[in-house]
Every structure is written in structure tokens, then in C-alpha cells.
Specification:
There is one protein chain. The protein is an alpha+beta fold and 562 residues long. It is built from 19 helices and 20 strands. Among the domains are: 91 residues, Nucleotidyltransferase, domain 5 (2-Layer Sandwich); 71 residues, LOTUS domain-like (Nucleotidyltransferase, domain 5), CATH 3.30.420; 187 residues, OB fold (Dihydrolipoamide Acetyltransferase, E2P) (Beta Barrel), CATH 2.40.50.90. The protein is globular, with a radius of gyration of 32 Å. InterPro entries: LOTUS-like, OST-HTH/LOTUS_dom, SNase_OB-fold_sf, Tudor, Tudor_domain_containing. Keywords: Cytoplasm, Developmental protein, Differentiation, Repeat, Spermatogenesis. It is found in: Cytoplasm.
Length: 562
């Protein structure tokens, strides 16, 4: 019982944080899914003596309000306390319809940027609300699903489940319908209206079908032209009759077979020669036991090279970002939002899947035991997709822990899943950028689980605006802002208002990255490889830094006053 009380108090904070972040509330089932996704373990129902999630929340009357929807479904909503009323109000103002938001100008002038020397921040521009976006891996899965043939919209969910073994949970990415998801991928997917219903077609597939039709039409025309040639061939049948005359020569060749049979007679001599060959084989076998042959490593296999990082961002530039992986507000990884870099990563994943899925290539690039060592750049298959990874540590004879350079997480995988990385796949810089939230530190020395949970909710599957502050020991310190609300929400302010963080006006070196920063260990700084060009981040989002003494600075950064 003594252990249940503190556990219940922590759980109340976590549940309140999750429900506050969900504007429309959550069903008990959705709460279970959200908790599992964020905490990586199920709700501790049995540890607290409850049989169901509904029974649990009924014992949190000061945290959860149980409502009933029009169709009778139970909806759980948060009851804000004094420390969370401001956050609840911001979430309540969140825009649901993205079309209206898209009519706004892309940049909002006269917003403001904080400086370390003054409480009056300098002006900069923020971004208007934007539609939700899918992670690159999910986009790749949809494109792969449609690559073989189009699908009816009504069959898409079932086909996704059949192909990948899980339901297509598009709502967790911020979408209200499958149609909205497909519309967000209109550059690669098109919806055609047919008698059977809406047909979802991959644009590449559509283009290939048109090419095939054009080719088949050309072949049909060639066949018509070649009919005249066929008639000419009938005329030449006389020549074929002349060929029959030469059969006598073939009979003469049969006569000479006797000589060939005579050559088969001295088999005894051949058998005598085979005996010493067997002895040679035994000698070779004995030698192979003493010195096992080393598998031949392909010449294009990467052995002693590293990926390089993306070029550093300019101080105070604005950039669209997606938070890919979170350990805490002081340790997370982002992707830069730009059409160019997004497609390059997707294309890389598709090409690697295509190449390594063939058995010949899969066998050719198998890594010998001597190559499976910490620091080795290679690739690994996870759920049928191939990722560029660096071996972090060898756990045992079967398993290794790897760092995924394009997504930022560590993962334990089977050695048998590893393959040498082809030299060609070195070109694209590592896409995951190690980051810390600027100007904040945890109030308790380390971030609480509730603080981490709230930060994950704030970041989850949204395109955010990042304001670059500085780099410290290779880690990017930036402010994060969600512009999809009526009032822009700055994450450092939210953590402060919730009582989880102190805003200190300077960047405290990340304790988590200080303990382990795989990017610093395994990824070379930009420019160390001559074959890697500069990547322009957030094409429409990046902005040149502005003068600290600019006279246009008139407004404060929303919620960022020190």
C-alpha cells in the first residue's frame, strides 16, 4: 500500500498531461494506447489493484471527467488544476480545421525572439499553422503498399493491416481521416474516381502504366509492319527444301561417332588420376580447418568510413522541424522539414530495400564476425526496411546494439540482420540532429517522467518551428514553437508554467548527452567528406539572422519573458 500511493500520484500527473494534450479527450482504449506509446509500458492497473482503465479513472475525480459522446462512447477529459489551467486554455484554442489556417500568410511578422541580454526580445517571424505530416517511414510504407497495384480507398486499411501486421493509426499523426492523409501526399499519390469507388494510385505506378501503353502501341505498329516481311519469308521456303538435301552430311557425322566411343575406352586411366585428386582434397580440407577462409568483402562495401552530419544552421534562423525521437527535453533528435531532404531519405530507404531484399545482394554483403565491432557503419533490416546504423556495442554472440543515424535512437538487433553498407549510401548526411531545448533546466536535477511525457505530447507528429540559438559540444540548442494554435505555444514556457522547468536565460550542457552522445561518437562534422554538399534546411522556413539591435523589435516572444 505504501508503494501504491506515490505510484498513484505520479500516474495522476501523467494522465492529466495526456488528457490536456488531447483537445477532444480520449476513450479509455485510446488512453491505454497513448500511455503505452509514451511510457513504453502498460498502465499499472494490477499494481494499483484495478481491473480496468475505467475503474482506474473513476478513482481520479480531481483529474479526469468522464463524458459520454453522442454515440454513447465514453470520453475522458482532463480537469485542469491551478498549474495547468493556462495550458488547457491554449489547447482549447487549438485549430482543428487546417484549411482555414492554410489561408494565412506563411510568415507572421512582428512576433519576437528572446535575447540573453534583455527581457525585450528581438523581432522575428513565426509560421502559421500547417497540416499534420506523416513520418518518413510511414510515407514509405504507403508508397510501398501501392507500388504493385492501385487500391480502392475502402480497402486501404485492410491492405495495410495485411501487409504490415498492424492497423493504420492515422489519427495518432494528427489526421482526421485516411482521405486527409492521402491528400497530404498528393505529390506522390493520386485519387481517381471509378465506378467501384475512389481508387488510390501511386503517381509512379500511373506513369509506368502510361509508358507501358505507349510501348505496347509501338510494338503493335511494328507487328503490322512486319507482316509484309512474314509474307517474304514464305517465298523463301524453296531455300529450306535445299537444306534438306544436306542431311546426307549429317549422316556422315553419325558415322564418326564410333571414333568418339573409342575415346571413352581409357576410363581406367581417368579413375587412376582421380585418386590423387581425392588426397589433394583431404589436404585442402585439413588446411581449411586450421585457417578458415575469410569471406570476400565486396569492393564497394564501407569498412572504415563514417557518415557526416548536416551543415550547421545559422544562429537565429527559423526552420521547420519534426521531432523524431525524445529521451527528455535536454536530449532529442529532429529532422529538418524540407521537400528535398525528406525525399532523399525516402528514396534512400526505398533503394536500400530494393537492393538488399534480393538474396544475391543480401548474401554478398553479409558481415563476417571480424567486422561486427563498435564504430562500424553498416545497415540493418527492421520490419522489412533497411536503416543506416553504427554498431554501438556487441551484447552477445547473437545481438548488438546499434545507433540509427537518421532517426537518433539506439536499438538492439540480431547480428544476422546486419549487412555491409554500400559505398553509394554514404552520400546523404546523417539526418537526425541531436538537440536540447534552449534556456531550460529541470527543477529537480533530472527531468521527471511527467515532464518527459508532456514534452513528447507537445512534439508528437507535428511540424514545429525551431528557432536556432547555438551549438554546444555538437548539440543544437533551439527553441520550439507550435504555431497550430491561436496563440503560439513555446515549449520552454509550457514546461516552466507546469512547474517542470526553470527558464535560466542560458544553455546548461545537457546531462544526458554528456553521458552518451552517439552522434558525437560516430558521425563526422559536416565538411569532413568532400562528396557531401550543403543541404538547405526548410526551404520556405529558413530566415537569415537578424541584428540584435534591430529597431523593429517591439513585441515579446509569447510566454518567453524571464
Amino acid at each position: 500500500l505504501s508503494k501504491q500511493v506515490p505510484l498513484m500520484e505520479v500516474l495522476k500527473k501523467e494522465v492529466r498531461a495526456m488528457l490536456i494534450a488531447a483537445k477532444a479527450g480520449l476513450t479509455p482504449e485510446q488512453l491505454e494506447e497513448q500511455y503505452m506509446a509514451m511510457v513504453c509500458k502498460p498502465l499499472p492497473l494490477h499494481d494499483l489493484g484495478f481491473q480496468s482503465t475505467l475503474e482506474l479513472v473513476t478513482q481520479m475525480p480531481e483529474v479526469v471527467r468522464i463524458c459520454s459522446s453522442k454515440n454513447g462512447t465514453l470520453i475522458l477529459k482532463a480537469i485542469a488544476d491551478d498549474s495547468t489551467k493556462g495550458i488547457a486554455r491554449l489547447v482549447a484554442n487549438q485549430k482543428v480545421k487546417t484549411r482555414k489556417a492554410s489561408k494565412k500568410t506563411t510568415m507572421k511578422a512582428n512576433a519576437a525572439f528572446p535575447t540573453k541580454t534583455s527581457k525585450n526580445p528581438q523581432s522575428f517571424q513565426t509560421l502559421s499553422a500547417r497540416t499534420p505530416i506523416l513520418p518518413a517511414a510511414v510515407k514509405a510504407e504507403l508508397q510501398d503498399l501501392l507500388s504493385s497495384s492501385p487500391l480502392l480507398l475502402a480497402d486501404l486499411d485492410k491492405a495495410f493491416l495485411s501487409r504490415f501486421g498492424r492497423a493504420f493509426q492515422y489519427r495518432q499523426y494528427g489526421f482526421l481521416s485516411v482521405f486527409e492523409v492521402l491528400r497530404s501526399m498528393s505529390d506522390s499519390i493520386v485519387i481517381e474516381q471509378t465506378k467501384a469507388g475512389s481508387l488510390v494510385v501511386l503517381r509512379k505506378y500511373l506513369a509506368s502504366q502510361i509508358e507501358q501503353e505507349e510501348v505496347s502501341q509501338g510494338e503493335a505498329e511494328e507487328e503490322e509492319v512486319s507482316q509484309g516481311e512474314a509474307e517474304e519469308e514464305e517465298v523463301s521456303q524453296g531455300e529450306a527444301e535445299e537444306e534438306e538435301v544436306s542431311q546426307g552430311e549429317a549422316e556422315e557425322e553419325e558415322v564418326s561417332q564410333g571414333e568418339a566411343e573409342e575415346e571413352e575406352v581409357p576410363q581406367d586411366e581417368a579413375e587412376e588420376e582421380e585418386v590423387p585428386q581425392g588426397g589433394a582434397e583431404e589436404e585442402e580440407h585439413q588446411g581449411s580447418e586450421q585457417f578458415p577462409p575469410t569471406p570476400e568483402i565486396p569492393p564497394d562495401a564501407v569498412q572504415d568510413r563514417s557518415l557526416c552530419s548536416l551543415p550547421p544552421l545559422k544562429r537565429r534562423c527559423l526552420v521547420g522541424v519534426i521531432v523524431e525521437f525524445v529521451v527528455s527535453p535536454s536530449q532529442f533528435y529532429i529532422h529538418i522539414c524540407s521537400t528535398e531532404t525528406s525525399y532523399k531519405l525516402q528514396d534512400l530507404m526505398f533503394e536500400m530495400r530494393h537492393v538488399y531484399s534480393h538474396k544475391v545482394a543480401a548474401d554478398k554483403y553479409i558481415m563476417p564476425e571480424s567486422a561486427v565491432r563498435p564504430g562500424q557503419l553498416c545497415c540493418v533490416m527492421v520490419c522489412k526496411w533497411w536503416y543506416r546504423v553504427i554498431i554501438h556495442r556487441v551484447i552477445n554472440d547473437q545481438e548488438v546494439e546499434v545507433f540509427c543515424a537518421d532517426y537518433g535512437h539506439l536499438q538492439i538487433v540480431q547480428k544476422s540482420w546486419l549487412r555491409f553498407l554500400k559505398w553509394h549510401y554514404l552520400t546523404l548526411p546523417a539526418q537526425a540532429i541531436p538537440c536540447s531545448l534552449a534556456w531550460v533546466k529541470p527543477v529537480e536535477g533530472r527531468w521527471s517522467s511527467a515532464a518527459v511525457l508532456l514534452f513528447k505530447h507537445l512534439c508528437r507528429f507535428k511540424e514545429l518551428v525551431g528557432v536556432v540559438d547555438e551549438y554546444v559540444d555538437g548539440v543544437l540548442y533551439l527553441f520550439l514553437c507550435d504555431t497550430s494554435t491561436k496563440d503560439d505555444v513555446y515549449f520552454h514556457s509550457v514546461l516552466r508554467d507546469m512547474g517542470y522547468a526553470d527558464v535560466c536565460g542560458e544553455n546548461i550542457p545537457s546531462q544526458e548527452f554528456g553521458e552518451l552522445n552517439p552522434s558525437a561518437l560516430y558521425v563526422q562534422p559536416s565538411g569532413k567528406q568532400g562528396n557531401v554538399g550543403v543541404v538547405e534546411p526548410g526551404l520556405c522556413l529558413q530566415q537569415e539572422s537578424q541584428d540584435e539591435d534591430s529597431e523593429t523589435a517591439t513585441l515579446k516572444l509569447a510566454g518567453a519573458e524571464l
